Amino acid sequence: MKHDLQAVKRAIHGDAEAFEELLFKEEKMLYYKALSYVGNKEDALDAIQETAYNAFLAIGQLRNPEYFSTWLFRILIRECYRLLRERDQMIPYEESELLKKLDQKQDEEIDSFHLSEALTRLKSSYQTSIILFYYHDLSIEDISEVMEKPIGTVKTNLRRARKKLKTELERSYQLHEKVT
Hints:
By secondary structure, the chain is mainly alpha-helical. The chain has helices at about 5-10, 15-40, 40-60, 70-85, 95-100, 105-120, 125-135, 140-145, 150-180.
């Protein structure tokens, strides 16, 4: 989301109202992205609250005002990871999102199940790359910033994740065909 750079600059210089205005503009994005990571409303709201607090404390360190959204999203992801570590869970993906997109036919529901199973078998870095790229529509450059990895690493993660997903899905379909 593109923000008024003047509002971002005012927030960097300590204007709490400008910062609050920026957070209100990001409210829905923060909620849905937190929810897709932590999986429930209460934890998503906790993550957003901690993100807002940490961002307010660190806004003075933001070097490039035009990257406010990316910077805020990075803080949110770190907070979600912290919550997940506390719960000792793997990084979930938005299963309801998968089901909404694939819930048109019974075959597509089966595809969704196979896809969700395949996603759980990926390394966390591959999972995160796939989720950010396909479910949150982030560019490779934005994913690179969020994950704090070089662009080449993100591209490699996406390529390897796709290959692994393809292998897992083919295996899953073969098993399904034998059962039915």
